[in-house]
Amino acid sequence: MFLGLLGLALLLQAPWAWAGDEERKLEAVFIGRFASYIEWPAKPRERFVITLLDDNPFGTLLDDLYRDKRIHNKPIELRYATRLDQVGETDALFITLASSAARAAAIDHAQRNGILTISEAKGFAESGGIIQLDFVEQKARIKINHAAALKSGLRIGAPLLSIATVLRGDRP
Amino acid sequence: MFDRISIRYKLIVLLGLSAALALLISSAITIYSTYLSESRASLRVLHQLTDVISENMRAALAFGDAGSANTMLASLRVDPHILLAVVNDESGRPLAEYRAARVSGAQVPQLQAGVQARIRASADALRRPDGFVEHIDDDFMGVLRPVFFEGAPIGVLAVVADTGVVWAKIRELVLLQAATSVLTLVLLLFLSFKLQSLFTRPIMKLMGAMQDVARTKNYRASLEAERRDEFGTLYAGFNAMLSDIRERDDRLSLLATTDALTGLANRRHAMDSLQTMLARAQRKGEPLGVIMLDIDAFKAVNDSHGHPAGDRVLQEVARVLQANARDYDLVARLGGEEFLVVCDGGTEEVTVAVAERIRAGVEARQIDDGADALFHVTVSLGVHSAVPRSTHEDIEKMIRAADKALYRAKQAGRNRYMVA
């Protein structure tokens, strides 16, 4: 009886698990693709640096995906940080911090250093983050805080803006 | 049948047929080249559309945004000829689609299947950044274009349109060409009707001249030969032919009416002329003088001086006769050494005076015998003058009377004239 219920539970959970993996893969792909539509202020770095702050939900997915790839004609370097003070010079910051206060601090740091911030946290864009990415029924929803991007000195390409929900000021 | 039609209508038919053929060929070429250029232009428009859409579609494909992709494709509704537009993602699944409202339900699967089959068939071409596939048939045309992101294909955009624009242009052109051709043909026929006279008038003129000559036998007619074209050559040839006929006629006439040795009228011509002169004299009631003349002892001249000298005697006597007769008198050699002079309006007095002048002239004429020796001859003449009463009878009568008088002159000792 218990085994039957467990099997049923696994069967019911399997599509969700599959959907979660697919979404994670898409999310990993999208991080790089966002970068293609964004112009950073000129920085004398030879590598394009993507940093994950706090938990790494991708496992080795990002390393597998971006190995030998280039963004803006630069080789990609992936860094993993657990605290904000570990984030050094980076171009994109994927924030998985659970605390909104910690996220706000990270956003503030990013704005001052011209860093693209991406997170799947609810209300991320409204609270000053640049790109908020989440999935509804396996479909990506992108929300962009254009004012925050400008404040960080980033220019977001029109094609990306055209498919995203864009916040022009503090409100969507 | 064609040989029964007048050259005028032949020319019109020929010009009309030539113009119609030229117009037909020109129209066919124009329509075909328009079809090609319109096909290219329509495909170019589809290429431009897919260029613009694929540029905007890149982000939607990159982030799998079907909603944005559908919104972008929906903008194609402004072009009523676009029937279907499909965007496939990188796995080949349709991400978004646009269908024109006028596409029937039954037509949709057929169009979709056609597009997907073409995408599969052109997979290699659609993996190249500059790759594209285009096709056009009687009803549809389409363009397939890959969408690239960061150097890798992330989807394919396909746009299918009807060929209504092309056929509408062709229909318009065919109508225009038909109207232009009919108008041109009518104008050409009108012009050819007017201009055919440039060719037919000279031919008709030549034909008229030929018919005139055939009817009147007047070979002295001629055509103005101032033209410098082929008709001028034809006219000149016609005139030359008439001239040849005239010369031949003159020569034949001369041969038929003159004596070859003396150049005087021969017996036959003399009789004809005498008949005419007699008829005129009879009509006017005027006298006619007839002189019959014979060289005295002509046989002895031939015998003693030879026949060449005899011929010279005949020629010298002829000259004397022509010199002493009046311009309008008839002088003829009747044969041998016998001559006839007819004096028009000649009273006996006038005729006698002429006869005496002749006699004296011959007697005085010295003749070369061909051996540096000179000799002379005499003539006997019979003179008769009368007002004729009936034509035929009086010729015989007058000649007989003059001949009798000549005989008497011979009998009387020669070198004299006697009046009948």
Features:
heterodimer, A: 172 residues, alpha/beta, Rossmann fold, 8-stranded mixed β-sheet, 5 helices, 39% helix, 26% strand, disordered N terminus, B: 420 residues, alpha+beta, Beta-Lactamase, Alpha-Beta Plaits, 3 domains, 5-stranded antiparallel β-sheet
List the helices and strands of chain A in order: HEEHEEEHEEEHEHE
Radius of gyration of chain B: 54 Å
Give the beta-strand count of chain A.
Answer: 10
User: What CATH architecture of chain A do you see?
Assistant: 3-Layer(aba) Sandwich
Rg of chain A is: 17 Å
Profile the largest sheet of chain B. 5 strands, antiparallel
What number of domains of chain A?
A: 1
Could you say which overall geometry of chain A the principal axes of the C-alpha atoms support?
Answer: globular
What is the H-and-E element order of chain B?
A: HHEEHEEEHHHEHHEEHEEEHE
Proportion of residues in helical segments of chain B: 55-70%
CATH topology of the largest domain in chain B: Beta-Lactamase
The pair of chains with the biggest contact is: A-B, 14 and 14 residues
Gap between N and C termini of chain A, in Å? Answer: 51 Å
